[in-house]
Amino acid sequence: MTTTTLLPDPSTPLSRESAREAFADILDARASEDAIATFLVALAERGETSIEIAEAARALRQRMLPIAASATAVDVCGTGGDGHHTLNVSTAVALVVAACGVPVAKHGNRAASSKAGAADTLEVLGLDMDRAGATAEASLAEIGIAFLFAANHHPAMRRITPIRQRIGRRTIFNLMGPLANPAGVTRQLIGIARPDYVPLYADALEQLGTQAALVVSGEEGLDELSGAGSSIVASIGTVDLPARITPDDAGLPRHPIESIRGGDAAHNAAALQRLLHGETGAYRDAVLLNAAAALMVAGIAPTLTEGAAQAAEALDARRAEALLARWIAY
After folding, report:
1. Mean pLDDT of all residues in the chain?
2. 188 with 222: CB under 8 angstroms?
């Protein structure tokens, strides 16, 4: 049946109430597919506001299938879409941070614009996605890590996905993954591929009640802290970093971004296995830098240097490697 609900004109910023109603109509299928496509494109061309980002996330959160989690749980997640096709940094960071004793509810998906998303790489490593989804709540509570496959927790997105594919360009929904974690985490390290969106995204997080978060973007347009040079940072809540940092701030060397260029899921999984088994180099240093930031968000590292040292110890003692093996067998 064709719906007739009209979406607001997005040529000017929407009020909080208008944005809330618009995204409810979109996610509850009260607007036509053509109307949704037109709305999303116009919103992207004008540039989303923090209110619109927050209300889209709030609408998605209200419709997701949640899991229970400790208040100390964190997520390390990027928006993707940076076009650099790097190795799976945030996936490795999740294992390292969890091996440091911090519960990690890793929200993720299969690749959209990259060659290997978190789910693709973990699957090659031996994690059964169906089982990991069914046992996510238990594995988070018992071994300190879970993978929350986005498709399993956001049924409202099933209608939106083909519309996004038809549009074929970035929309506000490309920003939603880190803002709609099914574990309801309030501590996050979030990487976004657009440095100019860092303050907007941080403002949206504050509106959503985040306790502690770092929103980061490598100046190359990388959706994580850059191991090559400077990154833009916004601090929210109980964590605080300067607005621009480099690997030097964590006592780490710099590496060109090409040194962590990834490939398909098999290639990235092999690199992750070598990392966990003790290989040093650019990939390890990128993971240490981002893990250090996540450990600051979790409140167990006072500085990036201390966080990098804790992360290095978790790798060197093979605790991250052992955790992956336990997770696969769970």
Report:
1. 94
2. no
Q: For residue 80, what pLDDT band results from cuts at 50, 70 and 90?
A: confident
> Residue 313, Cα to own-chain centre: how many angstroms?
24
Is 210 annotated as a binding-site member?
A: no
Extract the tokens encoding 3.
Answer: 């719906």
> 3-state class of 267 per DSSP?
helix
Residue 246, domain extent: 75-151+169-329
115 assigned ligand-binding residue: no
Domain presence at residue 43: no
Report pLDDT digits (tens) over 270-327: 999 999 999 999 999 999 999 999 999 999 999 999 999 999 999 999 999 999 999 9
| 30 marked ligand binding residue | no
Q: Is 90 annotated as a binding residue?
A: yes
Q: Do the annotations mark residue 82 as ligand-binding?
A: yes
User: Could you give the 3-state DSSP secondary structure of residue 215?
Assistant: strand
- Indicate the burial class of 13 (C-beta count within 10 angstroms; 0-12, 13-18, 19 or more): middle
Degrees, nearest 5: CA angle 61-122-70: 45
Is 174 annotated in a binding site? The answer is no
CATH code assigned at 269: 3.40.1030.10
Residue 223 annotated as part of some ligand binding site: yes
* 3 among annotated binding-site residues: no
